[in-house]
Amino acid sequence: MTTNSPNSTAAILMEALPYIQKYSGKTIVVKYGGNAMTDPALQQSFARDIVLLKQVGINPVVIHGGGPQIGNLLKQIGKESHFVDGMRVTDAETMDVVQMVLGGLVNKQIVNMINQAGGRAIGLTGKDGNMIIAQKMEHPDVDLGHVGEVIEIDASVVKMLEEDRFIPVIAPIGVGRDGTSYNINADIVAGKMAEVLNAERLLLLTNTPGVLDKQGVLIEALSQADIQNLIADGTIQGGMLPKLACATDAISAGAKSASIIDGRVPHAVLLELLTDQGVGTMVTP
Ligand SMILES: Nc1ncnc2c1ncn2[C@@H]1O[C@H](COP(=O)(O)OP(=O)(O)O)[C@@H](O)[C@H]1O
Ligand SMILES: CC(=O)N[C@@H](CCC(=O)OP(=O)(O)O)C(=O)O
Predict the structure, then answer these.
(1) Tens digits of residue pLDDT in 167-192
(2) Which domains does the chain have, with CATH numbers?
(3) Ligand 1 centroid to 60 CA: how many Å?
């Protein structure tokens, strides 16, 4: 990409000034999905975008996934992944792998990428500082094992870091009041974190252009009522379910919007946040 291309950082910045003023000092929660982080060049452009936001006075908080990366390691040890309603059924051995992959490998890869791009990232899981308190997620038909749902988030450590020029990078692992480890879908953690931090925007980066209709055409804007209909008629399934559940919850809790955006587009975060050009689906009340 040259500096003259329409999506270059310089070109985006020209259009960005009013948005920079609008979001200055505000928190933006960015969920970086495991499917969106497979290409090294895109990883670099993501890291640069996050650093640039921080440099212009906006506070990004990164919540990351890593579903495909967990699946790969499970496969290597001969375990099949099994999902129910977008949640990975998590037995004790799978929970260990989830902690290794999310809390270790993926978290530190993202921290390293952001730091290489000139930022100061700090990687945490929800266990650090008792940040994400969780309980077992019950399902009417299946025992989901260590799959957790969020009871409470104590975001004091995140606030402390963002006030001190750091970029928090959080793996979606929670802890029960009795010390049990929980595997929580990263979209759900991002939604709750956006609520607790009173974030100005919630961006969910994934590997589709956004929410697609039955013909595969991008739906640019979705209301709460549209979502219920699209779930009922089977248009929205699998990994898209927790994204829309979290978008809906964040909006019910007062967020103005939540956006599901195409992480395969270079500089997707800057384009969505700092230009008039949307790169996905915006969910509104
Ligand atoms: N209506 C829909 N529009 C777009 N994607 C959908 C839809 N319904 C289900 N999906 C699926 O949701 C996936 C995104 O969720 P997921 O795989 O969990 O991504 P991530 O790792 O980014 O969280 C898409 O790749 C697609 O297979
Ligand atoms: C309970 C549950 O499903 N947890 C997820 C956590 C990672 C995640 O959410 O990763 P993506 O955002 O890349 O899908 C999992 O085990 O895959």
Answers:
(1) 999 999 999 999 999 999 999 999 99
(2) 25-234+242-271 (3.40.1160.10)
(3) 23
